[in-house]
Structure formats: structure tokens, C-alpha cells
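My hope is that you will study the record closing this message with an eye to the fold:
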Amino acid sequence: MKKLTAACVFLAALAPIGLTAGDASACGMSVRLEPIPERPTPVQEIANAEKAMDSGNLLAAASTVLRTFPGIRGATAGSDPLQTRGLRVLALAIVRSDGKAGQASGWTPNANLEWAIQTMREIDQKRPNDPAVQADLGEALSKLPRTQPEAFKLLSLLAQKDLMGSPFAYSALAHLRQAKGDTNGAVAAVKKCEEMTKNTSICKVAPAKAAPSTPVAAVVGKVAMVAPKRPRVAAF
């Protein structure tokens, strides 16, 4: 009897913290204890980060990767397949947030973008001639002025071969074309972008700024100021 009572006390003590499961019916009570939920595996975490990024939740995507692999900024692309997936997610989350996602202490948005570009270069080296990776790299390169010429060349080639696998890459190409004054080319890239995604807001490109027009009155005034005086004709 004492053993049974002791067992009941032990089970009752465990009940609040959920360290066991089942019915404690032997003790004259029925307590069903919930099992402890399992933590997501690293594979599940990176899959969740990819879903978050695809849905536009860039901060959550970056946070999930950094939580799963705290030292991932120092990881080498290609050394581990799962970490490489995490590197891609973190890099693209940074690119698509203009350097804001995944910011660590002392990291400016510009420094974040530099890291993302370097990371995508390393992934591209490990997976050469992969159009999807090249599109991601081109998208990253389009974010900094010094790498925009390289981005334009890379994305233009992919578009020409119809190998662009990302609406974000088409959006980047549209912005680059617009900046060069190629309005028709920008419109064509926006159309391709919209065909590849339901979230067409990512495809929008600001219209090219028109040159400021000078009022007619001002033009007339300037002409009057510089117009040569008519010579006087002597009267006879």
C-alpha cells in the first residue's frame, strides 16, 4: 500500500511538468498528460525559412537561419548542403530587404549587401552554369552601384536565353533597364516578372523621371535677352 501511495505521489508530481504520458488510473485518478512537443530539426527550420522568404517575410526568414546556424556568416558555401541552403536564404533575405534583414551588431545595410553578394558568388562557384543561382547572383549584384554593370550583363544574358528562373531577377533587370533609359525594355521585363508571380507588387518599377520643362515665358525672356539688336536704317 505504501508503495502504491508513493507511486501516486510521484505521478502527481510529474503531471504538471508533462514528463510522462498516459492514465494514472492505478492511483484512483485519470490524468492524461500531453507529450512534450519536439523541437524542429535543422532541416525543418531551413525549410520554414525558405517558406518565410517566399511569402515575403524576410526578417523571419533571416532570423530562422541565424537561430539554426548561429555562426553561418563564417560558413563556406558547398561544405554542407543544408548550411548552403541556409546561406542562400539569408543572402536573398538581405538582398530583398535592401540590407535590413539579418543585421548583426556593427553591420550596416551596405556591409550586409556586400556579404550577400560574396555569398552568392561562392554558391555560384560551387554550382556553375545553374540559371537559378545565376539569377539570384544577378539580383544581388543589382543592389550596389559598383556591381550593377555586372548585374545588367548577367541578367540580360539570362533573359535573352529565356533562362531567368526568378521574378525578382526580372524585377532587378527592369530597374536596371529603366535606369539606362530603356523604357520599352523595362516594360518587357516587368511583364515577364508579372507572368511568374501572383505578387505583382514586386515587379513595379518607378517611371523614368522626365527632364524638367522650362516655362515658355522664361524661354522667350532668354531669347529676348540674347537677341541681337536690329541695326537702325538711316532715313533719307
User: Anything to note?
Assistant: Residues 14-24, 214-236 have pLDDT under 50 and may be disordered.
